[in-house]
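Lecture 7, part 2: worked example. A protein chain together with hydroxy diiron-OXO moiety.
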Amino acid sequence: MLSPIIEEALNNQIAVEAQSSQVYLSMASWAEVLGFEGVAQFMYAHSDEERMHMLKLVKFVNERGGHAKVSALEAPPKEFGSFKEMFQELFNHEVKVSACINDLIDICLQQKDYATHNFLQWYVSEQIEEEALARNILDKIKLIGDDKGGFYLFDNDIKQLITADTTQQP
Ligand code: OFO
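Predicted complex, written out as structure tokens:
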């Protein structure tokens, strides 16, 4: 059984994951309109992954006797300046999400909720991977600089980075 404090904290995280999915969906749409098919596919897949993170939390909260809430979301930006700025934003966003997961883990320890603590370890590992991936992409973009040809190749290469777990069910 979840304590009201843990239930509320998990519901806040559900909103964070849903908001992440919205932000990446907007990035996908922007890249698609600009004709960058690879970047768009990557962002659509990333948006789906965040929805999967959200659903995993929803199911956990309900299974543990709580009530997972669906809350209103903020409209994300529609444009992102440049791809460098967009991937920087993605990286910053993931760092913020990692901080939210860490706060959640602190609350679990304070509340002695070891089951939820255990469940959240999956998110800890996921955040390590997501931050590393975002940093890796950002490094590549910095190397490309203003080289249009380099960016064309990058748009093609990024398709390889679309992870298989977007197709997994929570
Ligand atoms: Fe990329 O954040 Fe979810 O967990």
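The pocket of hydroxy diiron-OXO moiety is lined by residues 17, 20, 50, 53, 94, 97, 123, 126-127, 130 (CB under 6 Å). Residues 114-144 form the longest helix (31 residues). Keep this in mind for problem set question 3.
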